[in-house]
Each structure stands twice: as structure tokens, then as C-alpha cells.
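Subject: sequence -> C-alpha cells, single chain

Hey, anyone have a minute? Need the predicted structure for the following. Not urgent.
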Amino acid sequence: MAKVNQFTPEDHIIVTSAVSQAEKSTDGEIVTIVTETSDHYGDIAWAISGLVALTALLVVSLFPEIYLRMIDWFAGGWTGLTALPYWALFVIAALKFFGTRLILIWKPLLFLLIPPPIKNSRVRSRATSLFRVSTDHRTVGRTGILLYLSMREHRAEIVADAAIVDKVAPEIWGDAMVALIDLVRDRKPGEGMAEAVKQMGVVLSEHFPKSDNNPNELPDRLIEL
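Reply:
Had a minute. Here:
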């Protein structure tokens, strides 16, 4: 499977620099993470395969004569069947099920078939999980915030620590998200994350201006998973 993650060493430098610059004016701590995909979606592939198999059985029940003629043709016209035997139903369902699962090994097709709400949920879940590991409770003032980008799903998330959530409504991050997604679509993911970080820094500086005794508690570098 070809990687869709297009981050170069230069992109890492751009994003790291953007984080360092943004944090000069705020006590907020920005963590940036990019990953190729947030989930393997194996359960979805199996579910789609099952749905295809059940659909095939429904079609057989509605048009059994088509399959009877096929079996008769394979047998040289000597079957004498008037109804499909159970073994034929099993073979048809098994071929559809495992054939579909084999086809869905090709990730571009699988990702095309996954409903957007499922992608949104999996990306959000992974972002939240990574936030707990990398950011949550790791700053004295609970001012950590994660910018997460999942390339294959074409989704991004911003997850903030408690102090930020109390002061900044989720929709405030909308401009940062738009800037990120627009530049990712233009195949400039590093610039997209850097621009999002810049806008996040502006918001954070309004609510959490830089204090004299606030250390740099989280890494500025872009984390690539």
C-alpha cells in the first residue's frame, strides 16, 4: 500500500518553526501530529463483505432461474434441478463474501466505500487518544492543545486541554481548520499545518498571553506516526 503521507524534512522544519513562533506569545502549548491513517477499518471491510454476501442471497431468492440455468450449463444440461440446493447457496454466499474481502485489501477502494460519519468518528477517536498520551495533564496550567491531521481520511482535529476548553468555543478553531485543509488539498501539508498553528497561536495569545515564568513543557517538533 503506497503511503499518502507527503511530509518532507522541509515540512517538519516549517511546522516546528511555526509552533516555536506561536508559543512566543502564549502560555499555550501546541502539539502537532500527522499520521497516514487513523484506523485500518478491518471491521468495516468485513461488514461490507457480509452485506455483499447477503445481497447476493437476496438476488438468488428473487431470480433463482438465472442461477439454475448457470448450474445446468456448467453440468452440460444434465442436472434436472428445479430448485437451488443448499450447497449452491453456500458457495454463492462464500464466493461473494471472501471475494469482496479480497478486493477490499486495496485500500483506496475501501476508503471510498467507508461512510464519512465513520471516518469522522475514527479520526476523532484517534485524535482524542493521542491527546491523552501526548498532551492531556502535561502542562501546569492545562493549556495544551493538539493539532492532528490524518492524511488518508482527509480529516483533521483540534483537541484542547481543560483550561482552553473553558475559554475558547470549538467553532473558534474553524479558520485554522479551513486553512489547514485548503493547503493540504493543494498538496502543501506542511504549510497547511504551519498556517493552522499560526492562527491557533493568535487565539491562544488572546486568552493565555505569555507569562514570565512559563516553561516550554511540550515538544515543538512535528510528530509523524
